Amino acid sequence: LYFSGGEAGSPDTARDPRGFAVKFYTEEGNWDLVGNNTPIFFIRDPIQFPNFIHTQKRNPQTHLKDPNMVWDFWGLRPESTHQVMFLMSDRGTPDGFRHMNGYGSHTFKMVNAEGTPVYCKFHWKPQKIKNLMADEAARLCGEDPDYAIRDLYNAIERGDYPTWNLFIQVMTFEQAEKWPMNPFDVTKVWPHGEFPLIPVGKMVLNRNPKNYFAEVEQSAFSPAHVVPGVEFSPDKMLQGRLFSYTDTHFHRLGTNYLHLPINCPYRARAHNTQRDGPACFDNQGDAPNYFPNSFNGHVECPRSAESKYTVTGDVARHESANDDNFEQPRVFWQKILNEDERTRLVENIFNAMKDCKPFIQDRAIQNFGKVDAEFGNRLRKKIDTYISQKDARPRI
Which is deepest, 124, 177, 179, 261, by most CB within 10 Å? Predict the structure, then answer.
């Protein structure tokens, strides 16, 4: 299990999505379930992924974190509203890694032994959910930036093993065709009332890494790493990630990163035509490096073939920003959060964008007003009060 976060050395309690990646070492190879601690994401179009990541990094001129970059992008991509509300709520600052949910986030396809496929989503549920209030999270950023990793390590060392239960949601192909929303849109959830959680397993963390660099820093996860029975759906963000992670691993760890002990499938032996390159371990001996061949080379595995699916319609690039971006955020505001949580959400958003340029604030408030008029009005009132107080300060 790997929890990713911000830059190396960044505080564990900063308001930021936490990665939640799990590597399964199976008899048929490794399966990586690479997700986050939220069931949704900021964008649904993979072409926007590099742009989104740039907004979360530092300003190229000042080398400072820049709220104008962040809120400008979020405001121009209204599909991010759902995830932004999750992030700015209490859920954006979990109390360590042990007390937060994990999600595969994307829609995947699972195929049974008879070859029947269904769509599914993966959910990890901890023993208990705990979140930090914004002021406590900010205090820990300065006083104990390693708060979450310290808590996780110490809990495992004393035998208080963190545990997550694994659930899936299942949607048949027929249900997917009739569902009023796009079931492959990672900015939306599948309502539990329509697609209930089905328990399938449990994960227990019962030992710490013996060497952090070897087992954590060199670990590499990719949603492209699957095993027979787990396949990809038409989720466009998922399809974009299938390429980008491997490309990043080549840059970070080298072309033979899958040979590293933490990444190699130790319960199965890989046979392919990949050879040479830096940090190559055994190079597969004298096995042929081409396919097909007439010698002692690898053979095809029919069980690994992707199940067939039907494709219809025209292929063209289209802009999806005007899809329904506010119905599910409205449910989150009106039905999921209580009044205290709504108040903290407004306060957290205000603090995050109070010093942004006015036109960026206006755009964000308009988007939140489309979620719920009261939501937008409460933000507008706080921003206006802050600006008037700021203007009234004596200038020295």
Answer: 124
